[in-house]
Amino acid sequence: MKKSEFIKLVLVAAVISSCNHQQGKSDKRIYMRSDTTANYSHVRGGFRGGYIPFIAYGLFMNNRYARAGYYSSSLHESSNIGSNAFKGNVVRGGFGSSAYHVSS
Amino acid sequence: MKRHTITPRADWQQKVENIGFGFHTLDTTYWDESVYYELSMKEVDAIEKATNDLWIICLDAVQHVIDEKLYAKFHIPEWIIPHIEASWNDDVPAIYGRFDFTFKNGIPKLLEFNADTPTSLFESSVVQWFWLQDLYPGKDQFNSIHEKLIAYWKYLQEYLHDDTLYFSCIKDNLEDLTTTEYMRDCAIQAGLGTKFIFMDEIGWDLTTPVFLDLENNPISNIFKLYPWEWLLNEGFGKNIARDRNKAFWIEPSWKMILSNKAILPLLWELNNGHPNLLESYFETDNFKLGINYAKKPLLSREGQNIQLVDYGSTIAETPGEYGEEGFIYQELCLLPEFDKNYPLIGSWIIGQESAGIGIRESETLITDNMSRFVPHLIS
Lengths: 104, 379
Hints:
The complex is a heterodimer of chains A (104) and B (379). Chain A is an alpha+beta fold. Chain A contains three helices and five strands, in the order ββββααβα. In chain A, strands 1-2 form a two-stranded antiparallel ribbon. Chain A has a two-stranded antiparallel ribbon with strand order 3-4. Chain A is elongated, with a radius of gyration of 19 Å. Chain B is built from ten helices and 19 strands.
């Protein structure tokens, strides 16, 4: 036989209900920042789908979680970090931008 | 190879969604079970042999590129070359690739090799298998992709860093997410510890310096459904070479050589007359093909910027954003026609072995992002 004898999935079926967002098109330029020490800049990719996701940002230290603030991949690094020293040691958003270029 | 038209299962959308296949319908139908292809065992054997043979000569070609320092032909930036050579010499794990074939006089001919981020894995491995089990359970299919993926992740376990294996892709793309989570599913079934992180969530520690997950844990193994040429051109690209953890990126950076269409003229040069290769040349030698050729960009996706020329006349051409790095010229070999439909055979290599096929069908001679995935069986 050339086919798999048996197929079991332990993870994939759950994927379908997550992250199936339609990409809305908009010419609006929205200016935001995720840290009060940072400057505002316009949101990358426009106001996609009517929302801009933010992620809680922190670190486990001495078995405790210390929250440092928030981060959004829709914002430029300079608007995510500012002069926040904790955030300043770690930068995010340095991968993943090419997909915007390809789809636009 | 025969094409059959049938009535789709009445509740096919529900059936495929139940197994996690949410992108069956994009702008138009993508998963098309109103059609299937029937292949003879002789054809399947020919594809299997071609896939195994081509994989060996591809590995030889990578060694040749490294030995002869031919990176300029591939437009690979100099700063990443040490990383590519280290990934090759250290046997950084690689797991998959997809050869795209057409048949000419019963012999599979290589159109291109998708060695870095091949798509349609889940459809090939899982969705068409369940279709077969539903409609033709007694029939066979050239598809042991699922069990070979699990087996190869098991094999690779001892070659990974002794740490979590991350899986990553872009946001807002269900197709990429499904493929990535499917790959992760197979790794979990192989016993590996895994986590998921989106590409733009990957962190870079300016002090250490290493890549981090969202809890600031270091990343030392990562499967990415994200092309190397994009990685290199982005803000964190050069950090890959600075990474103190020397994270294993899967597919590894040496796959940049095979996923670039410059590999096609090089394969021809090194294996002139190989039965599964089409005559191919770089731009400087394109005159050798005369007035019949396919012109393809070194880097392109979804069939963009391809031109087919037959007796000096363009018979098909696609627009796109590629071609900046240059083009290669390949002997013209058209896809077979079935009632104005043109099937392309994607043949999977998992680990070191041919593992099965998926067929995408278009209404044009160039397979693009409007193509439909259609199932197959063996007669």
